[in-house]
Design goal:
about 400 residues, globular
Length: about 400
């Protein structure tokens, strides 16, 4: 094994440990916050935290189970029996099991002096599913929890230390999930190199800076109009769901589960951009950005017309400029990234320096995560124009 490949495998393993640990810590933090709300007599807040956590967990287990059942027969040779897997998912442990399985495979590959191409491809297969599930968990649970925590702080006029810890870790976790998903997509396409350190930092920052104003707008609206935020979300969610349906997604193995995927994507689009359809993405991304910006401005204007002060005493003159600067700085960094830092290279059948790619003649014999390959081709449309990919030959 070359030194560069071994280093890549090592960092993949470290990031896998970090992602699994962060998930467990975040889960514990949510349960801790809910218990603190119960002890202080704030039962509605506790119920909201547990409801968001429960809905996200159930959705995650359903996705994981459907994908496992749709995978090629004999691919997961070391898995427990089907009944045991079903029980794990029923107990809401399916995603955690996948994380442990991915870590085991990553450690197994890293320990080998010369890992086989099958073992490398299988490790990528597992990590791609984990990355996708992590993204779903982020926008179904972490992001709504973040907006809820901010709204509670603004409405109550005070913040406990555990709330600030939750808010900060949520922001970082959300941006990290977006970066991890973007990096994972690139492993599907040999014509796309992995993100470098500088590109990764800029990508992380612009996602963080663009997400903050959106979450702030939702939190402000929720703090003063808690009875209407659900209606607002439902109205926009239905519009976004219709938009996703018009794009003709084909990600899940059957029509029923495809609607679950579309509903999840509509939830992601409520907070951030997510491409699901084939073709050039610039136009759709611009439309979505303008739509989300207009909605956020409308929520803030509605808030301004009903009160210039927050219950917490935080001045409007402080919050809105911070949100505005964050948005424009994030937009500038996004343009910088796609103009100068977005990695791109011509198609080469074999890559060196530790890149995990395989000879086209052997590609059909290796595990292929067709779900993520399809999304990667949608996200990077130029990859299909540059060359005929080996799994399409």
């Amino acid at each position: 094994m070359s030194w560069s490949l071994r280093t890549t495998l090592f960092w993949d393993l470290v990031l896998g440990v970090w992602g699994t640990t962060a998930f467990v810590i975040n889960l514990g933090a949510d349960l801790w916050i809910a218990s603190q709300y119960v002890l202080s007599g704030r039962y509605l807040w506790a119920a909201l935290v547990l409801t968001l956590l429960g809905l996200a967990s159930v959705s995650l287990q359903v996705f994981s189970w459907i994908w496992l059942r749709a995978d090629p027969a004999g691919l997961h040779k070391s898995q427990p029996p089907v009944r045991c897997l079903a029980l794990l998912h029923l107990l809401q442990l399916g995603y955690l099991y996948r994380c442990v399985q991915g870590l085991q495979q990553g450690l197994f590959v890293w320990q080998q002096k010369v890992p086989s191409e099958f073992d490398l491809a299988y490790a990528d297969f597992l990590s791609l599913d984990i990355s996708m599930l992590r993204l779903f968990e982020t926008f179904l649970e972490k992001t709504p929890q973040l907006a809820l925590a901010l709204a509670i702080v603004l409405q109550s006029g005070r913040a406990e230390y555990y709330q600030w810890v939750s808010i900060c870790t949520s922001f970082v976790g959300i941006s990290w999930a977006l970066l991890d998903y973007h990096r994972a997509l690139r492993t599907c396409l040999p014509s796309k190199p992995l993100l470098g350190l500088g590109s990764s930092v800029i990508y992380f920052l612009w996602n963080l800076l663009l997400l903050w104003p959106r979450v702030l707008a939702v939190a402000l609206f929720s703090a003063l109009f808690p009875c209407y935020v659900a209606l607002h979300f439902l109205g926009l969610w239905l519009v976004l769901l219709f938009w996703v349906w018009l794009q003709g997604t084909d990600f899940m193995p059957d029509p029923c589960s495809e609607w679950l995927y579309r509903a999840t994507v509509a939830t992601i689009l409520y907070f951030s951009w997510f491409n699901v359809a084939e073709g050039r993405t610039r136009g759709r991304a611009t439309i979505h950005l303008v739509f989300l910006l207009s909605d956020s401005v409308l929520m803030v204007v509605t808030w301004v017309t009903h009160g210039a002060w927050l219950p917490s005493g935080v001045l409007l003159q402080i919050l809105l400029p911070v949100g505005s600067v964050s948005f424009f700085l994030g937009l500038v960094l996004r343009l910088v990234y796609y103009r100068w830092l977005h990695p791109s290279c011509p198609w080469e059948p074999m890559q060196v320096d530790g890149a995990r790619s395989f000879h086209p003649l052997e590609w059909h014999q290796l595990p292929q995560n067709q779900r993520m390959i399809c999304l990667a081709q949608n996200f990077f449309p130029k990859a299909k124009d540059e060359a005929v990919l080996p799994w399409k030959s």
